[in-house]
Amino acid sequence: MSSVARLTVYPVKGLDGQDLTAATVREGGTLEHDREFALLGPDGETFNAKQSDRFHRLSTTYDPETADLLVDSPAGGPRNFALDLEPSRERAAAWFSEYFDADLTLARDRSVGFVDRQTMGPSVVSTATLEAVASWFDDLTVDGARRRLRANVEISGVEPFWEDRFVGDGAPSFRAGDVKIDGVTPCGRCVVPTRDPDTGDPLPGFRERFVERRRETFPEWADRDAFDHFYSLMVIASVPESDRGKTVSVGDRVTLCGE
Question: For 139-231, where are the E strands, in sequence order?
Answer without folding.
Answer: 153-156, 173-176, 179-188
